[in-house]
Amino acid sequence: MRLHRLEVCAFGPYAGREVVDFDTLAADGLFLLHGDTGAGKTTLLDAVAFALFGAVPGARGAGRQRLRCDLAPADTATEVVLEFTAQGHHLRIVRAPEYQRPKRRGEGFTTQQARASLSWLSPPPDGMPADGLTRIDEVTRTVQRLLGMTAEQFFQVVLLPQGEFARFLRADTTEREKLLERLFGTQRFADVERWFADLRTERRRELDRQRAERDNLLARLAQEAQEEEPEHADAAWVADLRQRARTAVSAAEAEHTAANTA
Fold it and tell me: Which of the pair, 261 or 38, is modelled with greater confidence?
C-alpha cells in the first residue's frame, strides 16, 4: 500500500481543512513525522486508519464522537479524505464519523450520521462497480480485501499504538502465525511443505506395501525349502538356499541318470 494524499477537516485538533501530500514527502525516500506533544502527529495516523477502516487504534477508538474537533464551526462537516494505491489500484476514500451537531432549526443537537464513499481513480478490480461504493460496510470490506488485513491486524503491525506491541508478542501463537502468514505471503511455503508431507505419506505407503510383499515371498520361500525363516532374512540366506537347491537338483539328476543306466 502507498499513501498519496490525506485531507482532514474538523477532525481531532484540526478545526479547519489540512492537507498532507505524501507523494511530495516521500519523493526522497523515508520521511519523519515529528512535532511537539499535542501537535497532532497521532491524529494524522488516526485519520489514515479511520479512512481505511472507520476506526482508530487503541483507547482513542472507544469514543467515536470525540473524533470531531470541539473548536470546529458548527457548519463545518467532519471528514477524512485519503488517496492511496493498493494492489495496483488507485482509489479515494471519504469518511465521516457519527457526531452531534447543533440543529439547523431550533435549539439542541442532532446526530450527524456516519458516511463513507469509495471512488476509483484507476480501472476498478474485476467485479467492482466503476462508479464506486457508498455503503460503509462495502467500503470497509473492499479495503480489507485490497490490504489483506482487518482493522485489528492493521493496527497491530502498521499503526501499532503505543504499548500495544507487547500485547502482540503475548498473543496466541496460532493468532500470530495466521497474521504473519497473511502479511508476508507465506502460503506458497505452506503449499510446498504440504506437498512434501503428502509425498512422504505416499512413499511410506509404497514402502510398506513392498515390505509386505517381500515378507510374503520370504515366507513362501522358507515353506518351499522346508526351513525355518530366520529372524533377519537377507540376500545371503536366499543365496544359500539357491545354492543348496542347485546341489540337490544336481544330485537328483545324477541319481536319475544312474537309475536309467541300471
Answer: 261
Distance of CA 253 to the CA centre of its chain: 77
CA distances from 97 to 65, 75, 80, 92, 131 (A): 7, 15, 9, 17, 23
Q: Do residues 136 and 47 both lie within one domain? A: yes
Examine the domain organization and report whether 47 and 130 are in the same domain: yes
- Regarding whether 108 and 237 lie in a shared domain, the answer is no
261 contact partners, CB below 8 Å, separation of at least 6 = none
Quote the Cα angle for 242-238-236, to 5°: 115
Is 124 in the same domain as 215? Answer: no
98, 65 in Cβ contact below 8 A? yes
Sheet with strand 2-11: strands edge to edge: 14-21, 2-11, 79-86, 89-96, 115-120
What pTM was computed for the model? 0.62
Is 90 exceeded by the pLDDT of residue 50? yes
Say whether both 124 and 243 belong to one domain: no
Question: In terms of Cα–Cα distance, which of 45, 51, 4 is closest to 25?
Answer: 4
Contact assessment for residue 50 and residue 97, using Cβ atoms and an 8 Å cutoff: yes
